Amino acid sequence: MAEQEGPQDRPQDTPAPVQPTGDELALRRRVSDLERENVAELLRESAGEGRLSYAELEDRLEGVYGAKTYGELVQLTTDLPNGLVPPQAQSATPQYAAQPSYTPQHNGETVPVINVFLSDSKRTGAWIAPQRQEVNAVLGDVTLDFTEAQMAHDVMYIDVKSILADVKIRVPQNAIVHLDSNPILGSVSEQEAGFGGVVEPSTAPPKTFHIRGTAILGEIKIKRGPRLSKRLRLH
Predict the structure, then answer these.
(1) Whole-structure pTM value
(2) 223: which strand partners?
(3) Which 3 state secondary structure label does DSSP give 8?
(4) 61 contacts 197 by C-beta, under 8 angstroms
(5) Per the database entry, which stretches of residues form a coiled coil (predicted)?
């Protein structure tokens, strides 16, 4: 005769393991070097705007480069206007991500962006210049030479941020330049064509350049006329 199981002989139901929510998983997500550098740039910009002291910037940068998860980056930037936000507060698109090649403007148009980090970028010769250009340079070099560029617009807009970087913008000799500068332990300067060779007067109508430059421990130089090799006919 089979023995009947008593209550004490029945296997006890073990509680199912608690699964982390999507928000918790997002905060635990490992971050990349590019994400750390993007957040570091955000902190430097905030310091340039006076939102962080130099000591606070140093402390937070140390935390950024030592961060392993998204949640750690959130804690370092959540009190800043453009800082990272916790997952539950995010909309369908992230509030801060790796910068795309194009950024939207208030009127809906898109602006090409040159992002440089520990490298260099040059636009010279007969390149096709957009009406609006954004440059973000960190520990690198950028050269924009408009003296031979194809410009379909009479008015050009350039927004430059230089952080420990060297940015050179060369405009035609007869260009009209409106410069809005914001150097922070850096320099933003406008220079005439240097000595050597002859600068031929341009017969084309002058282009107008609106240049806004922020230099944090970096340099932004606006130069007029063709580069020296062109003036000396060293093509």
Answers:
(1) 0.52
(2) 170, 191
(3) helix
(4) no
(5) none
